[in-house]
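note to self: dont lose this again. the chain is below, predicted strucutre after it. 112 aa total, dont forget to put it in the shared folder this time
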Amino acid sequence: MLTIRAGATALAFVLATSFAMAQTPTPPAKPAPAGAMKQDQTKSDSMKSSSATPATKSSTDEVKTWTTQKWNSMKAEWQKDKAKWNSCDTQSKAKHLTGKASWSFFYDCMKA
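---
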């Protein structure tokens, strides 16, 4: 009987301790030193200039917000480059993309 009571007490202690630890908030992250921030900023600035898409919004997110009118105007502009448009159109058809699902694909394809 003593063994069962000791085991139950130990189990209750372990559960209570783990619950209490899970409830404690983690301390906020410490700010980086000023020198380290400049280096990180320089790296991110150089990556932004070499990147084709902005870091804040991916092309897929941008195209998802387009209206049909915006899509039609971009499509008309892209269709001027017939060779590239036909290549992208063929790839889109091979992937069975239709409607708005194809818009981000065409955007990325035409920007490449």
